[in-house]
Write a structure and sequence with these properties.
By secondary structure, the chain is of the alpha+beta class. It has helices at about 1-30, 35-45, 140-165, 175-195, 200-220, 235-250, 255-265, 275-315, 320-360; strands spanning about 50-55, 65-70, 70-75, 80-85, 95-100, 100-105, 110-115, 135. It has two domains: about 70-140, no CATH class; about 140-360, no CATH class. A hairpin with a 5-residue loop joins strand 1 and strand 2 (about 65-70). Helix 1 crosses helix 9 (about 320-360), helix 5 packs antiparallel against helix 9 and helix 8 (about 275-315) packs antiparallel against helix 9. The chain is globular, with a radius of gyration of 25 Å. The chain starts with a helix and ends in a 5-residue tail after the last helix.
Length: about 375
């Protein structure tokens, strides 16, 4: 029965993919509009102030985007004021928004102060915008997805904790049975294996949090419709902050042996100690840098490849390429499910390894 359901689901998914891509291709060939593939791809992987759903083509053949607006929150310093409104007032970036004495305009997915209520901006000879920006703490698509992942984690772990309280000593089942092997794997094969039996408990909550947080964000980013599709872990700011957490925890709890091996490495000639200290200090910075780039690059590359494969239909402007494109997109989506889990595991494992190197007592 399960195999039949799987085959039906796969068949339905393929038909939906073919129908969606064929529809988009037919709309493109009827309107004879040339699509900028680079702009389409990078607009999908970039952050935005609204959640694009689909496009509606009117009788004149003009495409109108349909999107879910998100809250815009702008802080002005002179004079101090806070303006809050929905991103729909920008009309997808085509209209300026005036609030009190300030007029805002979106340019290259950033909000600037406009020169006047018509939304004019000032550029220098190199084409660089000269207008100032307000302090932007808006709820963008990536921020909204962060909240979704956080709430999902709170709900899952709370539900599992309640299940353990209701059924003490009993075999796990349902959601509890799904989560327990993952938690035990992170505890035994990542935390204890890299940090040690004695000291792993202090860092286990962080390792569990960072694994499930990255994993959920990666999976949500693979969902092609609301509330999925946001490229959160493909945003280098997000991966940088996660890496800085690992850097802070590693050096905050590092023992004397760790710092001694950096500034006074045993057995090292005295004249070589200053050089090695600089090299080791550079190593402290390069570790979180490697974590940042690895997660950012792998997730972003996956999104770009999938979108590029879909774009083959519009590049060749032929419906005959759609079956090939759908096949490779389906293959890449399955591969990305594996990559989503693998990257969460690698980030967690390396974080545990760096922490273990800092807190483990060295034996000579």
């Amino acid at each position: 029965m399960i195999q039949i359901l799987k085959h039906r689901f796969l068949t339905t998914f393929l038909l939906l993919c073919c129908f969606t891509i064929t529809t988009l291709a037919s709309e493109d060939t009827t309107t004879k509009e040339k699509i900028d593939i680079n702009e389409v791809i990078f607009s999908h992987i970039a952050d935005s102030y609204d959640w694009h759903m689909w496009d509606i083509t009117d009788e004149q053949g003009v495409s109108h985007p349909v999107s879910m607006p998100l809250p815009i929150i702008l802080i002005n310093t002179s004079p101090f004021s806070i303006d809050v409104f929905l991103s729909s007032e920008f009309h997808h970036g085509h209209s300026p928004v005036t609030k009190k004495e300030h007029t805002y305009v979106i340019y290259n997915n950033k909000i600037y102060y406009a020169n006047n209520q018509e939304g004019e901006l000032t550029f220098n000879e190199q084409g660089i915008i000269q207008n100032a920006q307000p302090i932007d703490i808006s709820i963008t698509k990536n921020v909204f997805t962060l909240f979704v992942a956080a709430l999902l984690m709170i709900w899952l772990f709370t539900a599992c904790a309640r299940a353990y309280k209701r059924n003490p000593g009993q075999a796990p089942k349902g959601l509890q049975g799904f989560m327990e092997p993952l938690i035990l794997f992170i505890k035994e094969d990542i935390a204890i294996a890299n940090i040690g039996e004695k000291k792993h408990a202090k860092f286990l909550p962080y390792l569990l949090t960072v694994f499930f947080f990255i994993w959920f964000l990666n999976i949500i980013g693979l969902i092609p419709f609301f509330p999925g599709g946001a490229n959160v872990t493909g945003n280098i700011s997000v991966t940088l902050v996660l890496s800085l957490f690992t850097l802070f925890i590693t050096n905050m709890y590092a023992n004397k042996s760790y710092w001694r091996h950096i500034f006074a490495m045993p057995g090292m000639p005295v004249w070589l100690l200053p050089i090695m200290a600089v090299v080791e200090l550079i190593g402290i910075i390069t570790k979180p840098f490697a974590l940042t780039i690895r997660l950012f690059a792998n997730i972003t590359a996956g999104h770009i490849i999938v979108l590029s494969l879909v774009s083959l239909i519009f590049i060749f402007q032929s419906l005959s390429i759609s079956p090939v494109s759908v096949f490779f997109v389906l293959f890449m989506d399955v591969l990305e499910l594996f990559v989503a889990t693998l990257q969460a595991y690698i980030f967690t494992m390396l974080s545990a390894l760096f922490i273990g190197m800092a807190v483990t007592e060295q034996e000579h």
